[in-house]
Amino acid sequence: MHNFRLTFLAPLFFLGTCVSAQQATPNLAERLGYPADTKLLIVHADDLGVTHATNTASLAALEKGSVSSASVMANCPWLPEVAEWARANPEHDLGMHLVLTSEWRLLRWGSVAPADQVASLLDSSGYLKPLCDLMAENADPEEVEREIRAQIERARSLGLEPTHLDSHMGCLVYYPQFFARYLKVAREYGVPAMVSRHEILEIGPEWAQMMTPEDLVIDHIYTAGTPDYALGLDNYYRGVLAKLDPGVSVLLIHTALDGAESAGMAGGVEGWGNRWRQQDFNFFTSEDFLNILRDEKISLITWRELAQRWAARK
C-alpha cells in the first residue's frame, strides 16, 4: 500500500524557478553524453524483502532482464533471501527502499535501529506508523537519519551493497526536514538518491535549494495509482511507454506472485495488493513489453550504470 501523494506528486522535480528555464535544461541522457533523443528507462521493482512471493517474482524479473533495478526493505522478514541472491548475483542492481512506515494491517514491522533510539517513529505497539503524515507529525529528523542509516548498514552487513536509495511511500521526499537527511545520507554513501527534476513546480523551491550540481537527478518518475489500476494497469504502462520523453526515466512497479502469502499481506486491499502485483509481474516479464521497448526505441538502464557515467562525465 502506498500514500496517494506518490501518485499525484510523482514525478518529483527540482530546479524549477521557471518553466522556460526547465525546458532549456538538457536532459540527463544528454548530460551523460547520449544523443538528445535517447530514451533511457529504469524499470524499478519496489519492496523486495517484504514477502517470499515478492522476492520470487522480482528476482525472476531481474534475471530475465526486463526489470533493470529493484530496492530492498531492510525492516522486513525476507531480507536474508534477497541478500543471499545479491551475493550470488552482484552484477544486478539493488538499492535500499528506505522505510519509515508500516502500512499493511496484517503485516507490520518496526525499526531496524533500537526502538529507544528512534522512539518518535514508532506507535504504541512498537511498529512504524502506517502513513507518512502520521509519521511526520512527531518524527525527530535526527531519528529519521539514524533509522535510514541503520537500514543501509543492516543490508550491508549481509553483503548487499546498494546502488541507490529511494523512499518507501515517498515519506523522505514530502517533508523538507527529511529530504535534507535523505540527500545527506546518499551523498555520504556515494550513491544516488531517487529524485527527478522536470514538470512539477508545486513541490516548492525549498527542495530545489537543497540540491547541488553534483547530485545525479533523473528526468521523470512514473508510477501507477489506484485510478490507473481501475482502468487497467496494462493500459497505463502502454500509455507511459508510448509517450515517454527523451532523457532518463524511472517506472516504479511492484512485482509479486499472487497466492496465500501475498493475499495475506494485502488483507483484502486492492490498492498495491496481491492482484496488482501479479499483473505488474505479468506485464513486465512479457514478450509484449520487450516488443514495446524495441518499437519505441527505449533502452533499459540501471542505477549503477547511471552513477558510473555520472562520475565519469567530467
Automatic annotation (TrEMBL):
One of its GO terms (molecular function) is hydrolase activity. It comes from the Bacteria. The keyword Metal-binding applies. Keywords: Carbohydrate metabolism, Hydrolase, Magnesium, Metal-binding, Signal. The keyword Metal-binding applies. InterPro entries: Glyco_hydro/deAcase_b/a-brl, YdjC-like. One of its GO terms (biological process) is carbohydrate metabolic process. This is Polysaccharide deacetylase family protein. Residues 1-21 form the signal peptide. Its cofactor is Mg(2+).
